[in-house]
């Protein structure tokens, strides 16, 4: 199962989007706008639209939250390691790396207060996002930033009265421990997704049936097949 269009969930409306443009908007779960034009609905059509809208409201935020929590978990662990360590220039460089990674992933999953955005993708792609893309990216980011943090800390301590030294082996053991902690948290999110995958598929199949009925009653929606079954 897959979402063929981007979906933005807000308290007052739902937007179905393509290339950052809104093509369909549902206001208050009962008013339908297609390409900016209000579509008149009878009582049965409105009831069907409400079922469809409420289904998206229950489902999309849950998917987005699993992905966003995974990203925040990994990045917060990295950021905590370099807070207050190194020069201002080094901290700016590390934060830029974290922000770049955050922006890259948050273009696909956005959660801001009561607003949720899910980019077009399938449930399999979400699983790959957690396993195949996010974990390697965070692993590389952790090794780059945390390794630099330990280097800055080691240099500072070398010039202190204690003349403290850390070996490379000790340094990378510390980095490895953080990476393992981050991966453990991401694995928990992946397990959560796997445990819910059957339920998610059932919900999407139910939404697909409602959407099909809605398309039959409002033909102008046919070109916006949001919930789709992948071959």
UniProtKB/TrEMBL annotation:
Pfam families tied to this protein: DUF2884
Highest taxon of the lineage: Bacteria
Designated name of the protein: DUF2884 family protein
